[in-house]
Amino acid sequence: MSRTESFRSIKGTFDILPEPSSSDGTVIAGSAAWRFVEQTIAETMDRYGIREIRTPILEPTALIARGVGESTDIVTKEMFAFERGDTQYVLRPEVTAPVMRAYLQHSLDQQRSVQKLYYIGPCFRAERPQKGRYRQFHQFGVEYIGSDGVAADAEVIVLMIDTYRALGLTDCRLRLNTLGDESARPAFRDALVDFLRPHAPKLSETSARRLTENPLRILDTKNADERAILEDAPRLIDFVSGASRDRFERLKDLLGAQGVTFVEDPFLVRGLDYYTETAFELESDLLDGAQNSLAGGGRYDLLALEIGSKTAVPAVGFAAGMERLFLALQGSASALQRDAAPDLYIVVLGEEAERWASVTSRVLRQAGVRVEADLSARSAKAQMREANRLSARQVVVVGENELRSGVARLRDMANAEETDVRLDAEALKAGVASSLFVVNPEATR
Ligand code: AMP
Fold first, then answer.
1. Which of 197, 276, 300, 445 has its CA 20 to 30 A from that of 182?
2. Whether residue 296 has its Cβ less than 6 Å from ligand 1
3. What is the pLDDT of residue 391?
4. Exposed/middle/buried for 68, CB within 10 Å: 0-12, 13-18, 19+?
């Protein structure tokens, strides 16, 4: 690379900047909006007694291959995997298998009979980048590990909806299906393959490959011709046991009792191998067609066994895309602007004032006041402009005269009112605080 060539972020990844920005037609929310969303998620989780877990970005490749499933798209095509020494690493493409690994590794079942865990963090998939589909993206998700009760499935679904509601997204569509237990799968798979084989020449290349590798995934197709063929295909619900069917009825009843509306979708199988019984997906019309899924999840009672546990560990959870959430929120993105404006801007005139301002702003900041002061010895006019741009609530101008007299003018930027203030941290703090709580300045005069 020549010295004049500049570096750019890798396609399908992006920078989160202090201000909203755009990349390849996608608006990327600013960091303050991300923090607001993350906090809202954390607060919702708190109310449900769900505690945070943070696992490494790097995991053993075999964990993902076995956990997510050897024949899934993620494992066959989308892993950022590499070798160093004799270890195979993967940048995690999802977080459910890593969370289950951590649960087993640290025997978290010894601490609580049901572990309710959530995570927020980056994931990596080598997909073709497009709107709503990136190579580095962020997921938040919840895992209830240790309960096989249908009440856990219902609570996970309801809290997922509550999290979106807390963020202002109420108009989502919940799709729901049951995959039955593992006993239903082989017979259904055989029936589906028998049904589809005569249609094989009409199937897309991907679906034709899936017919031998992972036939259930064909049900996920968005291809209109294939959907038409599937209209007459055998239905999974006819293969699941009576117990699974009862369980599904109970789930629907629990959701209905809480006013949660849903559509039953017999074609919903989800992309990952580890699901059993409940499967669900949350969609939004605010997102474009193929990428309209906000979140998805289900029960995955087999995952622990797949990744080496001697005993089965029942679990249910969901994973949600943060970027999709921001895309859906774009219409109301202004509600997410939580950039904190300074309480006080100090206009600094001269070296002595600069010294005073550096000492005083530190004292004020330690006392909890948001202070900005000029760092570049700019003109008074330029500094006032900056105070305006930052929407500072109060401005104080400090130069030689003010330092000599020990008094300066404190200007309330909302109403241009000025008051004298003693030039010490205590008095400034009091001056700033009083302006913050005055609703009607006329009344207090
Ligand atoms: P999955 O783990 O595939 O079930 O995905 C769960 C959620 O993560 C999806 O509903 C999307 O919101 C989000 N998601 C998955 N893959 C990507 C991606 N490549 N880019 C952005 N978001 C994604």
1. 197
2. yes
3. 92
4. buried
Give percent of the chain with pLDDT exceeding 90.
71
Distance CA 443, CA 71 (A): 72
Report the nearest-CA residue for atom 17 of ligand 1: 133
pLDDT, mean of residues 200-219: 87
For residue 1, what pLDDT is reported?
A: 52
Using DSSP, how many helices (H) and how many strands (E) does the chain show?
16, 18
21 C-alpha to center of ligand 1: Å? 21
Spatial separation of the C-alpha atoms in residues 97 and 274, rounded to whole Å: 9
Place of tokens 């449900």: 48
Extended beta strands in 201-270, E state: 263-264
Above 70 in pLDDT, residue 296? yes
Tell me which residue has its CA closest to atom 13 in ligand 1.
Answer: 321
Please name the helix (run of DSSP H) or strand (run of DSSP E) that holds residue 142, with its range, or none.
Answer: strand 136-145
Which atom of ligand 1 is found nearest the CA of 134?
20
Ligand 1 centroid–CA 306 distance in Å is 22
Q: What is the DSSP letter of 108?
A: G
Report d(CA 32, CA 16) in Å as an integer.
10
Q: Quick check: CB of 283 below 6 Å from ligand 1?
A: no
In which residue are the tokens 């001056």 written? 431
Contact 317, 142 (CB under 8 A): yes
pTM given for the model: 0.88
For residue 318, give the nearest of 119, 173, 150 by alpha carbon: 119
In a 10 Å sphere around its CB, with 0-12 CB exposed, 13-18 middle and 19+ buried, how is residue 86 labelled?
exposed
206 burial via Cβ count (<10 Å: 0-12, 13-18, 19+): middle
CA distance 274 to 315: 11
pLDDT tens for residues 392-403?
999 999 999 999
Is 294 close to ligand 1, i.e. is its CB under 6 Å away? Answer: yes
User: Quick one: which H or E segment has residue 44?
Assistant: helix 31-47
pLDDT grade for 67, boundaries at 50, 70 and 90: very high
CA distance linking residue 99 with residue 114, whole number of Å: 14
Beta strands in 387-430 (DSSP E): 394-398, 407-412, 417-422
Say if residues 27 and 333 touch (Cβ distance below 8 Å). Answer: yes
Q: Point out which residues pair with 220 in neighbouring strands.
A: none
Contacts of 366 (CB under 8 A, 6+ apart): none
